[in-house]
Each structure stands twice: as structure tokens, then as C-alpha cells.
Amino acid sequence: MNQPEANHHLLSVLVENKAGVLARVAGLFARRGFNIISLAVAPTEDEAFSRITIAVDAASAPLEQIVKQLFKLINVVKITELDPRQAVERELLLVTVSAPPEARSQVIELVDVFEGRILNVGHDRLTLSLEGHPDKLDDFEELLRPYGIVELQRSGRVALPKIDHSTSRLRPARAS
Q1: pLDDT by residue (tens digit) across 21-59?
Q2: Looking at residue 1, what DSSP letter applies?
Q3: Would the pTM of this model clear 0.85, i.e. be above it?
Q4: pLDDT digits over 70-94, tens only?
Q5: N or C of the chain: less Cβ packing under 10 Å?
Q6: 10 Å Cβ neighbour count for 24?
Q7: Are 119 and 129 in contact (CB under 8 A)?
Q8: Is 75:15 a contact under the CB 8 Å cutoff?
Q9: What is the CA radius of gyration of the chain?
């Protein structure tokens, strides 16, 4: 499941927050045969807009073709390709894992090492959450597999460009 960064395009698509927009975007990808690795959508700081973060398999379509097709959709306002080295990416994982008494402490130790949370406890199962970079979640998921994953859900990637620190807004202090 671990996808190398070079194998996908990461797009942040600002769209009008209207009914049917996500369906049109997803339909475009389906019609063109573009393989979506991850998709997440939610309203932005301005309720008139939503941001769709899409990780697209680089082998399924050239970036220029994806952008050109997206801009044909009337509700698309802005498209930004995010270089994974210049973006902050996060994803949420929820997982229920088998954790009988003899294995529970090992699972709890993994949760602690990965800085996750235990959300629900049963007699022989734990429901866990972990937030972080998709690679971190891939590693966590892989280490949980031997215990027995009962159910798993991942949110899909969300990403924003890293803040440019090259131009400081702070003025240097002057000596008196």
C-alpha cells in the first residue's frame, strides 16, 4: 500500500461549494480513466468554496491533461499542484484490531510509539486512531496486520502548501 511520492500527482482543487460538484469531478476522472489514489473534500475557511485534495496515479494520466480537463468544469475556481516536498500532508486512520489479553500490551505499545489514540476498548478488540503523513499511516497499518485488522477506514489525504519562510514579516530590532 505504501505509494512512493514520485508515483502520484497531488492536486488541491478549489471549487464552488455547490451540490453535484464532487460528482462532476469524480465523473471526469472516471471517464478519462485517471486512477485516483486518494480523495478528500471539505468546505474551506470561506463557506462558498470547498477544497478537494486529489492524489492521482501519475502513470494513469499526464498532469497537464488532468489540469486541462478539470478547468473545463465550470465550478472549478483554482487548481494547485502540490509538490510533496513543499506541502504539508495529513490523513486520518481509524482501525479496529484484534487485541486479546495476551497481545493487548503490544498493540498499545505500537499506538504509543506512533502517537496514536485508543478510542474504544472491547474484550478482545481495540479501536484506534492515528493522524499523520500517509507514509506513517501505511507503516502503522502494516505493523497492525499480524494482530488482525477487523475494520479499517482512512480519510484520504488533505494537504496545503508549506509556508514560505524566506520573506519574514518581522522587522529586525534596532539598537538604540
Answers
A1: 999 999 998 888 888 999 999 999 999 999 999 998 888
A2: -
A3: no
A4: 999 989 999 999 988 888 999 999 9
A5: C
A6: 15
A7: yes
A8: yes
A9: 20
What's the start-to-end Cα distance of the chain, in Å?
Answer: 59
Looking at this protein, which amino acid is placed at residue 15? V
Choose among 128, 140, 122, 73: nearest CA to 96.
128
Domain edges within the chain:
5-81, 88-160
pLDDT at 3 over 50: no
88-160 folds as Alpha-Beta Plaits (3.30.70)
Work out whether the CA dihedral 53, 58, 61, 67 comes out positive or negative.
positive
Residue 147 in grid coordinates: 494482530
Q: Average per-residue pLDDT in the chain?
A: 89
Taking the C-alpha atoms of residue 16 and residue 49, their distance in angstroms, rounded to an integer, is 5
Residues 6+ apart with CB under 8 A from 173: none
Q: Do domains 5-81 and 88-160 have the same CATH topology?
A: yes
Note whether 150 and 125 are within 8 A (CB): yes
**Cα separation, 93 vs 95, whole angstroms:** 6
Tell me the fold of 5-81. Answer: Alpha-Beta Plaits (3.30.70)
